[in-house]
Amino acid sequence: MWTWFHKLASPPHAYRMLGKMAPWFGWTALAFILVAAWWGLVKAPPDYQQGDAFRILYVHAPSAWMSMFAYVAMAAAAAIGVVWRIKIAHAAAAAGAPIGASFTFLALATGSIWGKPMWGTWWVWDARLTSELLLLFLYLGYMALRSSFDDPQRADRASAVLAIVGVINVPIIHYSVKWWTTLHQAASVTKLDKPSIALPMLIPLFLMIIGFQLYYGWALCRRLRGEILRRERNAAWLKEAS
Amino acid sequence: MDLQKFLTMGGYAGFVWSAYGLTTVVLLWNWWAARRSEAEAQASARRRITLSQESRS
Q1: Does residue A78 belong to any structural domain of this protein?
Q2: For residue A10, is it within any domain?
Q3: Residue A118 contacts B, CB cutoff 8 Å
Q4: Gap from B10 CA to chain A (nearest CA, Å)
Q5: Is A35 exposed, middle or buried (0-12, 13-18, 19+ CB in 10 A)?
Q6: CA-to-CA distance for A80 and A196, rounded, in angstroms?
Q7: Cβ distance A212 to A103 under 8 Å?
Q8: Smallest CA–CA separation between A1 and chain B, in Å?
Q9: B chain contacts of residue A102, beta-carbon cutoff 8 Å
Q10: What digits encode the pLDDT tens for the residues A90-143?
Q11: Is A193 a member of any domain?
Q12: Per residue in A166-177, pLDDT tens?
């Protein structure tokens, strides 16, 4: 088990593995996203209250989910890097940040576009919206902090602290609609009892979440390969790999 | 499928299509940025290797 783990964490092995995995992630992601978009835009029936505007759900909810998933993954990788001093874990945290930030931006922007016709406003300082905006600033702060160090090891340690402390915001985002019942609607899918969405409307949502998740996997593979190369400045294996 | 209905989105065309358009842009940006980040790292690694080989010979 441990030898397998060490092999996995060794830069040349990881570099090759990621290169092999990326196309699988990429093509399956494309298939899932296209089917989900067709299903969500064409096949799913319009909502009885929101009409066709509810179709924004199929890009808004998956990107909001990814914004939180990517943050937890980044913080977990940073924590592993700090505790076990695994360089590749720090590299994975750094590689995931811009992807997570882009999904957070997308969740905020599509939410705003949905908010205008349904709530009558682009933005309101509601608990859910405010905590999601804070998440975007956490991502941006993490990336800015990293780029302020020349030495990657010091950047790893300092940015890991920010990533780990910031993870407290993720449950706040999730429960914000329960704790402060302001404008954003409460959870409809991630409830312990039955989800309150009809099945024909729910299927494209799940397909899109899977698609986004796979797409994140693809982007992480590509970016992590770049991170590994940047960190292994003088390693001999680079000669064979590049 | 009624094309007219599909395009107008029951009067919400501007909102629905801009949300999906923006999603497409962000996904394409991720694709481009990830590829570029990897390609730049590969190019600079290759440059370093050639430089170190030249200095040795």
Answers
A1: yes
A2: no
A3: no
A4: 6
A5: middle
A6: 37
A7: yes
A8: 30
A9: 26, 29-30
A10: 999 999 999 999 999 999 999 999 999 988 889 989 889 999 999 999 999 999
A11: no
A12: 999 999 999 888
